[in-house]
Amino acid sequence: MHDPDTSSRPSGNGARWALIGTAVAVAAGAYAYVGGWLSPQRLTPDRLVDDFQQAAGDHPGFRRNHAKGVCVTGYFEGNGNATAFSTAPVFAAGRTPVVGRFAIPGGNPYAPDSSVPIRSMALRFSLANGQQWRTGMNSMPVFPVATPQAFQAQMDANRKDPETGKPDPAKLAAFFAAHPETAAFRAWAKTARPSASFVTERYYGLNAFHFIDADGARHAVRWRMVPEASDAGAAPANDNYLIGDLHRRLAQAPARWRLLVTLADPGDPTDDATRTWPANRRTIDAGVLVLEHEQPQDSGPCRDVNFDPTVLPAGIAISDDPLLAARSAVYADSHLRRTREEARVPGAASTADAGMESAR
Fold it and tell me: Which segments within the chain are labelled E, that is strand?
């Protein structure tokens, strides 16, 4: 699936990587820092956020990543199928309230919806016992790189040259040569196209987690949301169609996704988001996500939610994926910066940093 020409001479496909890679860099830029992983002389949370602002422009009160989005509310209807693997009450038969957010990558809240082919879904499940499960997912099946260090190298390779306004092809080629693990993402990026609807997308958790059962046994898992709708069609020729499409669809009927949880076999990687698991792994249908209403992000219930994917209820735990701790550290830093701006700029459109969710 890997085209060697893109590694040695990034022309057409290289340009496509530059476009999507830059979007992913912004969407998941928070992955690149956690204390001790990167030299503090080279990178700190503040400097990283400054880089994102430089790339997207100054938009006080908006999140630095996934700045353009919309709040959604609804519920998750568990069916009990996952209770043998996790004690989290969300998987028992019954409803759990959900607050979520759809978005596109980037720090520009006015970016055209068709500028990138990636969409994100971030969710907060509020369990009856007072605990929460937060998750950020993206419409790409793999992540480009596996470590914060590699992500920093990706950001460097995608940095725009001040003279050309584009990434340096030689730096991209060198990055590809040094990081063959990007092949799966690049193969997806070659054919990815912007969709016409949030509702018809699949959303992948990308990182591995552990379910913990009643006996304390751990089960490595990944999850994805699979839509019941499939009629997206081609993206319209205008800049702002996704939220309008969502509004029209939800006015007619709730939008629904199946939560599919895949169980790893021994030896399947849990620390590498660039590698998928074999298709024959056991998959459980854990229930259905039902989204009923959408609201503007500046006044809706998702406004102040930090969709940190390490906020987990008992029965779910993080894996050894190094990107998870990095996401949590920088989501917190970015959220703090946003709230400080909100205090200084009354009336600014305010949203919490959802990250990649990513990218959620």
Answer: 68-78, 94-104, 120-126, 132-138, 203-204, 209-212, 218-227, 255-263, 283-296, 316-318
